[in-house]
Every structure is written in C-alpha cells, then in structure tokens.
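Can you please make up a protein's amino acid sequence together with its fold in token form to help me picture the idea?
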Amino acid sequence: MEISKNVLVILALAVTLILETRTFDEYSRIALPENHDEHFLPHTRQRREALSDQRNYTVDIIVNVSDAAAYQKILFALNATSFPIHLSNNTEITETSITTVCFSTGSGFKCNCAKQFAWSYNSCVTYGACDSISSGICKCINAIPPDGQSCRPISELLAQVEYEVEVELNVTDIETLNHLRSLLINGSYFLALSPIVNITHINITTVCSMSNDGFQCRCEDQYRWSCDQCLKYGSCDNITDDTCGCINAFFPDRLYCQSVYQHNFTTCPLTTPPPTTPPIVFEFLISVELNTTDVTLIDRLRNILNSTRYPIILNEQVQLSDVNFTTVCSMSNDGFQCRCEDQYRWSCDQCLKYGSCDNITDDTCGCINAFFPDGLYCQSVYQHNFTACPLTTTPPPTTPPVVNEYLITVELNTTDIIVVETLRTILSNISYSIIISDQIQVSDINFTTACYPNGSTYQCRCEEPYSWPCHLCSTSGKCNDVFENTCGCINTIPPGGVYCQLLTEICPSPPLPTATLGPIQSTTTTSSTTPTRIPTTSVPTAAPTSPTPLPTTTTNPATSPTPVTTTTIATPATTPPTVINVTMSVRLDLEFTEDLTDKSTPAYKELESGINSVLQEQYNSISGVRRAFVTGFRPGSVITDFVVQAIEVNAREIAEANNNLPSAMESLIAPVLGSVVAQYTSPTSLRIPDHIYTGQTVMLTCGPPDIDVGTISGSVWKFEGLAISSDRIIATTAGSQSTLMVNNIIPADAGLYECTMEGTDLRFVQTGKVTKIIEAPIVRLQSKVSVKCEEGDVPLQCCVQSPYTVRWFDGINNLASSPTEEAECIQHNYQIENCNSSQTREEIFTCRVNELEGYDQTTTLTVFIESVECNNTQYGTGREGDTASARCDAGQEGEKIARCQNRQWRLVQDTCILVQIRLLLIGSQDLALETVPEFVGNLSAAVRTEAAVIPSSPATISAIVDILNNIANLTTVVNENVMEDLLETVDVIIGDDSRESWLFLNSNQTNNASSGLLGSLETLSNGLNGTFIIETQRIQLNRTMFTDSFNAMLNSSVAINIPNTNFSNVFITTIILSTFNNVMPVRNSSFDVSLLNATTNETVPDNAINAAVLLVKITESISNVTLSYNKLNESLSLNPQCVFWNFTFFDGLGAWDDEGCTFVSDINNTVTCSCNHLTSFSILMATDIPPSIRSDLEKITYAGVGISLASLVICLIIEGYVWKEITRNSTAFMRHVSIINTALSLLIANICFMIGASIAKNPLEDDEDDYTVPVGPCSTATFFMHFFYLALFFWMLVSGLLLFYRTVMVFSHMSKSTMLAIGLILGYGCPLIIAVITVAVTAPGNGYIRKNNACWLNWFETKALLAMVIPALTIVFINILIVIVVLFKMLRRGMGDTAQTDGKHTMVVIIRCVAILTPLFGLTWSLGVGTMISPTNAGIHIAFAFFNSLQGFFILVFGTLMDSKIRAILSKSMPRPASGSNQTRSTSGGISSFSGMNLINRLRGRKNVYRVSNATNSSNNNSSASETFINVHE
C-alpha cells in the first residue's frame, strides 16, 4: 500500500497542469500535498488569457526522482488519467504532460524534451545541443538551466514573429542610391541571417536631402508621412488623404515614412468648415526640368508619354490631363540653344531678345540662343496667345527654293572602343539615302577624326579616306609622315571645329567631263552628317553639387534650312573605300617597365616612335596599305601590339613583310622573340541559329574568310575568352570553314563565342554571341498505364510548363481534352466500351507540344482481363510482373517505374531530377578552373532554394554528388568561400529527410553515390588553403595547425588525440558529418554483395552506424590516433567496431573496414578507438542478435507455439466435458466463460501467427530473397492477431472484474445473461474498437505493419505496436490491483461459515488464475517491449520467445488442471485402480488441502494458518440461488 500511495502522490504532482478557472483570483496559489520521500518545486511559468470570464494557467512542477522505475510509473499514470479533472466548481485540470527529463551522464547532465516539446535556439546554443539543431530548435541540451527553464511547446517555438527594422544609410552619391534601389527591386528578399532569423522584405522608405532652406525628407512609393508630421514640420507637397509625401525636416523624432498598407494614419484636423458650394475645377500647368545627357532616356520617356492614356487619376480631387515635352536645351558652339518640341513655340519677343536659331513664322520661332531664359519654356500653340512681331520692311522671297547640301559634323564623346566599333558596323550596313522628312534626307555618314590624350597633349588621327590639310600638319605638329600635301595625324585638337577632310577636297583631281551636273530639280534637301568622336577623358569634369539642369551633349537632328536665292551645283557623293585593320603583335627582347603602360612617358614615346618608323618602312610599300602604327605594349618581355590599316589586304605580301620585320627590328630596336602574330577580325558575325532550346544540338559556323588569309590548317574556339575543351562541345575544321557543335545545350552556354582559324598568312577571327537559350518544354505523363478491362473512362493526363501547351493525339487524330485541377495539365478520358475480348490489348497515345515540333511523349495503355494484383493511386492497377510509370512533380523531368511484385508496386527506377540541377550537372562537365567559384555559388543557391524537394529525390541527390565529383577532380586549391558553398550544398542532402533516398541509392549495385560523396569531400579537403572554421547545420569543418601533438574536443560528440608526432606547423583538417549515418551503407568486408540488385530497395542489416562520421586529413603521415565518439543510439551496446571507409572494396563500391583500427572502450555511451592511419572513421554496432541465436529463437518459438496450440485444444475439450458440472452458479459460469474465451482467443491468435509467418519471408529461411512482406495478406493476418491478442487480455480483465465484483459487492446479484453481455462487450467489443482505430490511423500512411521479415504491427515509423502494448499492460496493472484489493478485503473480513462451498471454490480458483496468469501475460509483453528498447539483448529475446510461445500451456495448467473440482470430475470418469485401498485425498467440500488459500497462507508465512470449515450443505445443493462466501477465521 505504501507503493500505491507514492504513485498517487507522484501522479498528483509530477506533471504540468493546465487549469481552466472561472472567477479565479489572479494570484491564487496551488495547494500541494506534502510528501517526505520526494522533493517538489512548483512554479508558475505563464498565464494565458482565454475568455473574459475564463483564465488558462500553465503551471510547471519539478519532480526530483533518481529511480527510472518511478519515472515510468509517473508516465504510466499520466497516460491512464482521463481529463478534465474537476478540482472545484470553478477550477479544473484540462491537460497534463511531461515536458522535460533531466539525468546525469557522469560528466554532467542532459535534459531531453518530451514529444511536442523542444528547447529554444538560445538554450541550444547557450548550453550546447546534444542532438542536431533543426529549424532553430533542439530536443536535448547538455546542462540543467540554472534559471528553471524547461522545454517549451514546439508550436510556440516555431511560431513566427515579424519585426520591422529601420536602418539609416548615409550616402551623398545619387548613383549609389539608384543602384541600391535597383538591387532591391530586382533582388530576392528572403535572406537567412541565422537558423531562426530571416529577412523577408527590404524597402527604401525615406530619402532626405539638403534644400535651399535646410533639409527635405521625401517618401518613396507606397510610403507617406502622417498628417501630424506634415503639419508640425511643414509639408513640401500637398496633403492628400491625411498624408503628405515630403516634409521640411531631417528624420524628425527618428521617425520615417510609413507604409500606406500597414499604417493607420491619423486624420487631419478640420481647419475650415466644409464647403457649401460645389467645388471649382482649377487647371494648373506644371513645368518639370529633367536633367539628363542620355538621348536614349529622353526617347524612351517620350515613347512612354505618347503611349499613356489620359487622364491619370491621382486621387479623388486631382487628375493629370496631359504630359508633353516642351523644350530641349543643349550646348552649341556659341553657348546654348533651346529648341521647342512639336506643337510648342517661343514667343516673338523671346525670339528677338535672345536671337532665333531658326525662322520666325506666325510670330513665333522654334529655337533661341539662350538657356531657359527667365525660367521660361516653350509654350503650346493651342493654349498661348503669342505677341505679334513688329513689322519689318523686308519683302518675302519671290524666287522658288532650291536644293542645298549641308555638311554636318557631330562629336561623339566616348572612351569605349566597343561602342565605336559597334557604331561603325551599324553605319556600314545602312543603305543610303535616309529620308528624314519631305524636305530632308541624309546621303552619307562616315567617321572622319579620332582624338585621344597623348601625355599632356592630344593626338587627332584621320580615318580613311580622310586627312589633315598641309597647313594644319605644319602648324599643329604632325605625328606621322606628310605625303601628298597631307598628314594623317596632328598633335592637337584644331580650333574652330575643323576636322579631317576628304583627299579629293585637299588634293582635287582634274574634273571629268560628266563630273558637273546642272541644278537638281527637286525640293528635297540633302543632308550629309559626318560624326566625329572625341574621348570623354580628354576633358575632366566635376560632378555638380546642386540639381542644376544641364543640356544634353547629343545634337538634335538637323531641321529644314531656310531657302535662299542662291543656286548650288551638287556633286555626287563619293563612297569612301572600306578600311581594313589587321592587328599584329611582336615580342621584343626588352625588359618591360611600368613606363610602357603610360603613353605620356618619354620611354613610351621613344619606343613608339622608333617602332612606328620601322613599321612604316616595312608595310607602307605594300599595295593597299595606308599606314601602320603602334597601339600599346604588354609585359612578357615587351609585347608590341600594332595595327596595319589597308583598303585592300594582300595576305602574301603582309606575310612576307612579317617575315622581314624581325631582322629590321633587331637592327634598329631589339631582337624579336618568336614570330610576328597577325590576325584579321571579321566585321561579320558567326552564323548562329535564331531560336535555340535547351537540350538541342546547335551548330555555330565560322568563315569562310572575307579576305585571303592563305591555307587554313586548323581552328581554335573560345567561349567568354576561355579556350573550349569539352567532350560535349566539339569543333571541326573543313576547308575554309569551322563548325562548333554544342551538344545538349544549356542556358549557361549563352555568351560570346570566338573562332580563330589559322591561315598560312593570317589568322582569321570571327565572333558571335548567343544571346538567349530558351527553356525547352518538359512533357510529363505516365508512359506506361495498365487497367483492367471494365467499361468506363480511363483518365490520361499530360502536363507541360508555362508558357507551352499540349494536346493529346491518337496517331494523327486530335483527341478531346480538358484542363485539370493541376495547373498546366490536360486530361483525355479514354472510354473502354468492349470487354468481350479474351486477349490483352494495347493503345498508344501521343502528347504533343503545340506549335513546336519534336517535343512529344507517348503513353502505352495496356487493357487486361486478368484479376488485379497491385493497385494504388500513384501507379494504378496491374498484374503480377507488370510495370507502370508515374510522372514526376512539376520542375522535374524523368519518370518513376515500378513493378508489381507480391501484390505490391515496388519502385525499381526513379529518374525524376530537378531541371535546374540537371542543367548544373551538364555545366559541371565543362567547368574551367576560373569559373569554379561562381559555379559553386550558383549550385549552393539552387540547392538551398529547392531544399524541401531535393532530399526526397534520389536522382537529384545522385546528380549533386556527380557535380561535387566533377568539381573535386578539377579543383586543386580550395579557398574558404568555395568550401563553405560546397558544405552548404552537402548539408541539404544528408539530413534525416533524405534517409529513404539514400537507402534506394545504396541498394543499387550500379550506384556508388554515398562512397562518391565521401570521396569528393576527402579530395576537396586535400586542396584546402589557409586556416578557418566552417559550420552548417549538420557539418563542422575545422582546418588548423599544430605542433608535435593535437588533442581537441571537436564538438560535443567527437574528440581526437594525436600524441607526440615530432612535427611542427602541420595542417590538419577535420570534418564532422553528424548525420552521415543516413548516407553511408552499413556493409563491411563480409557483406554479401548479391543482396544488392536493381529491383529492390530493401536490405536487412545487422549493424548500424552509431556515431558521426569523422574525416581527418593531415599533411604528414600519422601512425597513432585516438578517437572518441558519443553514440547516436545509446540503446545499442553489442559488438562495437571501429571502422574506416575503404573505397577499394567490392570493385570500388566501398565498404567499412576495421584494418588498423582497434576498439578500446565503451564507457558511459562513449566509444573510444585507436587507429594507425587517417581517413574517414566511424563506429558500427550490432542492431540485432546474432544469426545463430535467431535460429534458436525460431526453434523455441515454433516448438512453444505447437505446445501452446495442443494445450489450448485440450483445455477447450476439458471445459466442454465438465461444463454442466461446474457452471451451476453465475460466478462459476462467468469464470469458465472467461477461461474458454481466453483460450479460444489465444488459439485463433496463434493460428493467425502461423499464417502470418508463412506469408512473410524471413532471412533465416531465405538469405538471398526479398524480405518485404506483402501488404494485403500480411495486414489481414496482423489485424486478426492484434484483435485476438487484445481479446485474450480483455477476457482476463473480465475475470478480474468478476473477482472484484464478487468480493466488494457481496450482496449484489446479477443474472447470467447480464454478466455474459458485459463480458462479450468487454472481451470482444473493446478489442475490435482498438484494432479498427489502429488500422484507420496508420494504414493510410503505409504504417500499419512492419515492412519486412514478419507480419506484425509497425514500431519504427508509426509506433502502431503501442496499440497492443498499452492496453495489455494497462489490464495487467488493473488485475494486479484487483488481486491486491480482493486479498486485503478477504483477509480482513473473513468468510462466513454459511457460505456455499461452490462459491468459495470458484473465487479461490479465479484468484489463482488472475494472480498467476496476469503476471505471466504481463511479463511476456513487458519482455516484448524490452526487445524493442534493447534489440541486441539476447536474454530478453529468449525469455520473450519462451513465455510468449507457452501462454496456451499456462492457461491449461493454471486455468483448468489446477482446478481441483475439474480434476475430481475427471477422476470420477476415469476407471479406478484395482487396489482396494482408498488413497483419495479429502477435499473437504470440494477443495483440496492444496487449495489456493493454503498456498496464500504459506506464502504469507503465518504460524496459524487459516482453516476452511465445511459448509453445511453438500456439493449437490448447488442449485440454491443464494451465493455467499464462507467465513475464514483463525
């Protein structure tokens, strides 16, 4: 009784209470019972408000117990308690739960959280997590928090709290602000700062800047100042909707603009009475100055304004009716000019005051020579009344207009040679003339002059066929030779806007007879524009400090000139010859100095001048060559780059000059190293297809050359400046052409390609850019579908990503389809009409992408008539041996193929891979060393983005491992950033959620992904550079340096000790892979490789990886290292093995090997190993008992079950035989009903056990077969076993309750029918309810039964076995309590002498059965739980097998044969021995002297045993209705 009292006290106190109270005092305290055995420390944790008249309190109670059994009793008591518990009329306990269990580990403490509870991230970090930190929480810490903290509900810890953080950025550069704004608009907002902190959105809210009177703070879009701020500091724009967008203050009160969506702005106070008259509409003309020099921006804005629909409603009171450009101001030779846009004009007084730069017509002009005079702009011709111009005496012209030709020069200010070359290409491809209007056309455009800095001066060079006049060559200083009264370069920018001129204008030729033409009878004005380029670096400028509008530097198109009375004779425009640049380089045997990088230094000018003279001598004599000049110097000795310009190229003469150049250079400058390299870059692009889709094979064509370069011997292709060397990209050269074949093209292949063909005289270079590679459509469907022939519709679905669409076809016939609930999918319903055929038939359907050839997939529909063996929602129906496919999820390509085996679809192939990862895999095959950092960053970002999908995709995981292998094989030096990106990638694929994918990969003999992943990490660790620490959620890398010895606790679970190496400054790298037990297979050197095959993903390992995998790399050879691991599963203690991964086992498949490693100790769940080498280590521990013991268990089980079945049959036969004699009162009746049903339930359960054993395959019976159980038959056997085993215990409960009823309620009487009904409800109704609920809860998720070896309830995934264990142990507990209570009452009260003998006898037998069988059955299933908790304990397994198999024998012995009355009946019916002696034992009223009461008395050890007196009535008077117990006295 003392034990019982302690249990009740613990039940009342060792829990967390949730109280619901009404009218409860806020500071009420809980009265706790006093207990001297245990110490309780209650404290309230939190009060939570519910309804206005109801409060919820959560109370924490700390229980200090050192006995694990006491804790189990607490847990059991809590689980058996029903809620709510009413403490008073207004207080009740609604829920109790254990949150935290702390225990000593020898070296400290660990605190584990119960289910649905966890430690916060701060606690995990502060006290150290003893398991992995996932989603910012952990389940275990290495300390007892001193502040009384306990585990908190997971739902509470994972609840998201949103904070708004405001950051001030101090910057004065508007470009920086615009760049930041662009990044925020185009970037991804989700940034992970820590495991529990993420940035979800970033916006600029407020921009403050100086104004004339102080500061102004303006709000960005969707942000506003509240009305009180607008009124307090003054609004610098209108107050609308109780807000304004600008105030005259600098971050007032550290406040910023608020979001219009998230902030409730205060209403502005009413300052004036509401209007009583209708509002008046006012029209305002607002002028805005736009300060820009980019004419493209102006044109874009003009197009936007022209395409905008007006009016634009700004709010209820303001709308924008029209927006137009009015005035454009730009610099001219004499100052500024301001021109009006269409429909806008300057008034006549402005035209006269500032001077008109066009004609004054209708009292207006379109251009004035001033910059925004008096802040005025051009006015609308429709809305402005212009003042009339004063009358003049000049008569209007009376002669008709004539055609005039103008030469317009335009300066282009740029330093980007690519821009110039692009513009040159555009101009050369234009067909002239260009008609601008009815009166203006452009006849030709050419480059004339190029000016650039040269030291402290400038050099201006002429383009072909332009030159400087002789007087400028002499006055300005020539920088090349003068020939034919001209020169091609001068050393200054000539004043007055003079540029290079045509040779025909400088040195005119005699006129031809047809050279002069008469006046052209046309009203079209011909305009010739000659652009000139001047680099911007020639004029240093300072950024303006105030927003003053500046004019654009781009000259507007020429407008129609005013007609004059002179007559002009136009000459036909001459087409200048095309100038060809041949770029060359030569390596001189000189020492390179930094002076040669600066064109203004004397060293540069001296060397340039000397080389130019040699070049002119060598190349000017070649026909067609105009000049040759140096363009720069590069290091490598001194590499001189120069250009030979020609109007035609004679490759043979240039090659001859190149051969002669080394000797000329050696005599005048320096010896030449190697030969002269000469190449010609073609202005035409490579031939590239217009539309390119991913996965296609694309051909790029180079050549043939447009000039003679000699015989072509080969070609070299480059991509983005790097030489191409890839098996996927193949270059071939044939004749004068070279082709590049890009197989399986991916988006990363878009970019600039360069082809260099080696000619005997010149190199020919051609470039081209692949601008866009379109993602190809990915058609997703079931390629194989099997259905049983039944009349009705069979849905066929086909999906493709947007923007593509698909259609179903039957041959060439388009089939009717309809959209499905899943986006981007269609469905065709195939109708089965005739099932009379006796043969299987196939139908083939094609799903094609609309408007795009070559993208289709087929579905083969098999219609069969046989019975369905396999059926599920993913693969459909099928016969034994059929294969079926399932389509991949969106964003993936491939398929899943399953085979129907043992009435279940089994996955045999899964090629579903994320498209993005597949593209990265293809790209990794062509990686260049220079692009590795960028590629690794892209890989890490892609993997982290798809972290929720990747772990469940074996093909994607395998592809990632292949990518890592490619990177490891390419990279020789790995820096910290690259390694961090790689470890973040690995971290995603080794979590607990990837376990099933790795099991699938490891079971396939052709896949070596796990070994490959570990090998890649070892290879990468060899190339690490520097010392650093990298930590991810599941990986910890530490690269450091040590001298002589190294001893470190790498983390809370792994330690390493390397003693006395005598080395100094040695680098060591350690990588702890905490969850690599999910990745690596458990095979060792004795593993049977035949278990691996391509048709199953199930193996039955006897070992488990029971520690983190530790990778150790060192730059020296080590012969002694000691490793210590904390076990992952502390329940495993059998056969620890210290192992390392041997990559050479099983033809490179790899396995764990213990060579060179020895086991040292296993103390306090810490395993210590000693090894003589370094690599990747871990420990293996047995998860099951040895096969020899398993064989003995099989023999014990089957022999015991056979004995049990025979015993049960004998029991039922005996009970049937003696039924009438022993069931004459209701107590005896119910007692034997319980025994019969107990025996019957166990008999049927054992029969189901034998059936289940025959269904399931066992590794002891077939070592090379698949151990997976068939779901259907095995589920049926398991259900009936579960039901009848529960019935066994519930009928034991009926016996116990009968005993309790007859002991406590002595004078109560219940009829047989009533007692039978109650017994049947308890004995079969309750087990049926529990069994059905178990199936309903666990079966939908395939968690009802075990997956392999045996037909029984699942334990590892769903804990369905608890539905058997908990009811059974609960009944055992109840029956034991009943026995204790009954014995106590019987011994205390005694039995009257008037009691009936039958009643007394029956009660004693019931007590014996319940007291003996209940503990036996309870012990059996307690041992069953022990086998789950400690699966490697052979003793527990043997004891469980023994007691479990002999339960029927126990029922026969203790329930039937030990009943003296049954024995008496059986002895009467048996023939008596011939001896005349009477040796029968007196039973005194039917009870032998070895009765249950005597047994109890002997057990009690009393001196004076209880005596049982004879009843007054005989045993034949059992028909009496009165049923009482006899008295028991001393």
